[in-house]
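To illustrate this point, what follows is a protein record of this kind.

___
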Amino acid sequence: MCAEEKGPLIGIRHLQSLLLFLVIVVNYIARLNVSVSVVAMTDAATTNPDFPEFDWSEAERSYILSSFYWGYILTHFPAGFLVRRLGVKITLFIPTLATTILSSITPYSIEAIGWQAYCVIRFVMGLFQGLIFPCIHEHLAKWSPPSERNRLGVIAYSGMDCGSLLAMFSSGFIASSSMGWPGISYVSAGVCGVWCLLWLILGANNAPSSRLVGQKERNYIERSMKREDGFHAQKIPVPWRAIWTSVPFIAIVILCIAQGWAYSTMQLQTPSYMHGVLGMDITSNALYSALPFLAMWCMSYVFLVFADVAMSRQWMSLTTLRKSINTVAFWGPAAALIGIGFLDKSQTNLAIALMTISTGLYAGNGIGSMMTIIDMSPNHSGMLMAVTNGIGNLFPLLAPLLVGVIVTDSSSRSQWQIVFGITAVVFFFGNLVYIIWGSSERQPWDAENFLRPHDSENIMRQNDFKANEEDKQYGTMTNVRRERTQE
């Protein structure tokens, strides 16, 4: 394709990706500010003592912190059906608007009812935010030409790391300001509300439905995906049987299970190990807490540059590129976790370095495997993301239970070595399955008419049957005429 046929260098497709980046940022700020909020509410002296303080037990705090995720896992599967029925623009607007409302009523609800109200609000917020990532994948599939999919995908999903950083730093600053801990919720509501307005004005389900995109860019996007006029008005049925018997899809599901288990252990349990064994209180140090997210944000663009160069110079196929980057993203952290398990209190700096490197390398997961779902099936990407992400998010709830069984003494390095060893094996096995059976090739069951050949075959059979019946009737009539003629 010639350069002049590619549309504008910066276009509305990039604006859509930026809007996806921002929606992840604002929703992550609202999701993750709870850790700072709970501290500020229960120990006002550390922030602004002019606001009410609550005497919540450790159990009550844990209920508040976990309540979001119990709601979050419930709506991933329904999200796939909802986004197909309503479209991305409405479906993505709903959870962000709900987050705006829920965040705005949080301070009043807590003061009026207590920690139970906070749990309910967080649970409901999780229910709504479970819709977000299937929408993100569906929108990227509609707007991303294959040659730009890595770039637009990384721009969008880097919002997770940016949102985590902003939630960590802004929440502490707000809680210490004149706004106090209620300000954390009000600011979260404000940024989510601003995004809702931007989305209503600038967002569009696809290029043909956008009033902002030019004809040249619209043709480029639609032609690159080999879409005919009227494509987006079609209701393409989901070939469930073909999907669940597809080896590359099963490989992605196994990879997501490994990812959910191993990454949650890496992010949630490593700080506990470093506190219990190495004597480091990493969560109280803003720099140490921010380093992993900063490393992931920066490394996501490093992987993007490498992927762009590799594809433009044709160093390897897309499938090989994705598997190579994902291997670094999975096996690198696996090795780092094993290394961390052998460190002692005299090697805390090395522990921080390994933790930062491992999370930074994991950023390759975006290009390495998340975009593979769109490669395999751009027509069903939202539904497939709902399925794989829904299954993958079940395991972060189970992993802490296993850790609780293994680690009976948080200062025991040998017990933590078992945890890290299991996590490394999960990382290794999940990626190995992906290397052997994964694929970035568009699958046959993604075709719009995949289920139609069966109907065509039935019609052909019916026509053949009718023809045979007509032949029989014609033959009978011919015999009757012949008999009459002989008489």
